[in-house]
Amino acid sequence: MAQDFRTSIAGGRSTGQSVLATNTVLRNTYALLALTLLFSAAMAGTAMATNAPPMHWLMVLGGYFGLLFLTTWLRNSVWGLVSVFALTGFMGFTLGPIVSMYIGAFSNGAELVMMALGGTGMIFLGLSAYALTTQRDFSFMRGFIFAGVLVAFAGSIVAVLFSIPALSLAVSAAFVVLMSALILYQTSEIINGGETNYIMATITLYVTIYNMFLSLLQLLAAFAGER
């Protein structure tokens, strides 16, 4: 039995490596995602080092959707790459003041940030590996994800406008579940040919990581934060 289990694991790894080696869109997506995450982290560090103030949430939404529209429009040209870095750099810069706020508000703030970062990485890598090795079609989740994100997004605005901490935590928990589903869905779409543009695939996966990190950070701060 142990031998069969090891053989199964080895076979799954071999399948995942084979998919990654042969799927150009997937390979380009992961390469661009790694670069944008590094650039985003650098911009977040810059914001923290310069003590940049938090942006108003309307400015964040305006910048995000504006750059998202621009990237979608330029997705089939080399300028799409420039737009991707503009979008992820902007989002990284908005993240800096938020991280600084958590580090300053909690005595274990740095640990909370690292736990959220580690949790995000583990979830992303684990779900991506599962989608790669099983090659299952998760397209059936499209409707659930779309409806769930709309509801969660509306809930987050209500929580901000009316200062409802319980609703904010519920939205964060919902986003963790929805972003997990989106990782499976997007990876499946790339593997099965549903997504053929690596720029758009990169944006989707970047947004899942960004939202996953913020949601986990808020949940950890609420339940494990030490003021």
Written overview of the protein:
With 227 residues, this protein is mostly helical. The protein has one domain. The protein is built from 8 helices and no strands. The chain has helices at 2-22, 24-49, 57-73, 79-105, 109-134, 142-162, 165-191, 198-224. It is globular.
Compact overview of the structure:
With 227 residues, the chain is an all-alpha fold.
Low-confidence stretches: 1-10
Total E-strand runs: 0
Classify the oligomer.
Answer: single chain
SS content category: mainly alpha
* H/E series: HHHHHHHH
Biggest sheet architecture = none
Provide key terms for this protein.
227 residues; mainly alpha; 8 helices; globular
Write the layout of secondary structure elements.
Blueprint: H1 2-22, H2 24-49, H3 57-73, H4 79-105, H5 109-134, H6 142-162, H7 165-191, H8 198-224
Helix pairs in contact: 1-5, 2-4, 2-8, 3-4, 4-5, 4-8, 5-7, 5-8, 6-7, 7-8
